[in-house]
């Protein structure tokens, strides 16, 4: 019986050594969680039977340190959530490693080419995050804001007060330049007439401006200009001065790159300086993370012990927030592993000593017969 008991000890220690070796070998693996082999005493009815391995538990709750990668698609989680990934066979797995990239099909995938899951805009269910790289069209300006100064007092006789250049985007989204002319006209004392000037063409009267209230009254012939807003003008002493700023217009743009913000928003950026949020990354939250089972590729599968993953957005529940441009390192403490290795070595030697002692006793017994 002593042989069997000591042998069970050696077998248990071998299993512990496997776990320690796995930890040490993955001390630089992003997102790896260290494991510990646990033991329980074995009994054959009422007789001692040595030791058995009760299981390996992983320190899933302990986060590794964050490492800056400089890649705007790389993400780390500060909290208890997991990235949700879909394997090629359609099964979901969960990971702490956000080493994301865009593949040839415009999908957001991890370093092992698993599809990252997220919420499309306006959707409550998760799906593969696929970047729409379509170009964006030009847009016309929706308004022109004019700010500056109308001189107080204004000329009493008909006269030009001032003129400014206006750059905007026309109905087709193309850049256009016009001038706005401010002048006093006969028969309208106390109001300023505003006209559109387009090169050598005759001026087009757009309307009148009350300098006391900056009330704009549009009238006259149709104009190529968008709505005018003079709320930024002031009636005060000094020379005429004004600037015009267009609102809402943009040139056409091509897709340049994608980024992920700390709230998990997957944003497409375009050459015209605009951006478009297309998805928000989904995170999984578990009632018992200790019940997750590790599988190949530094990912985890849910089990009955872990409970079903609750789909969250970053910042919801205990999932935590994202840190863009970073990756979570391994939580292995190499010093602790080396101490555990020495302890396992001593236990192994002690069990082999039991076997050698028992063997010596048996040999003496056989020689005495």
TrEMBL record:
A single cellular component GO annotation: bacterial-type flagellum hook
Database matches in SUPFAM superfamilies: Flagellar hook protein flgE (SSF117143)
InterPro entries the record matches: Flagellar_FlgE/F/G, Flg_bb/hook_C_dom, FlgE/F/G-like, LlgE_F_G-like_D1
Keywords: Bacterial flagellum, Cell projection, Cilium, Flagellum
Keyword Lyase assigned: no
Keyword Transmembrane helix in record: no
Domain of life of the native organism: Bacteria
Compartment(s) where it occurs, according to its Swiss-Prot or TrEMBL record: Bacterial flagellum basal body
Domain Flagellar basal-body/hook protein C-terminal: 324-367
A Pfam family recorded for this sequence: LlgE_F_G_D1
Entry's Gene Ontology BP terms: bacterial-type flagellum-dependent swarming motility
Residue ranges occupied by any Flagellar hook protein FlgE/F/G-like D1 domain in the UniProt entry: 76-133
PANTHER family according to UniProt: FLAGELLAR HOOK PROTEIN FLGE (PTHR30435:SF1), FLAGELLAR PROTEIN (PTHR30435)
Family to which this protein belongs: Belongs to the flagella basal body rod proteins family.
Chain's role: A flexible structure which links the flagellar filament to the drive apparatus in the basal body.
Protein name: Flagellar hook protein FlgE
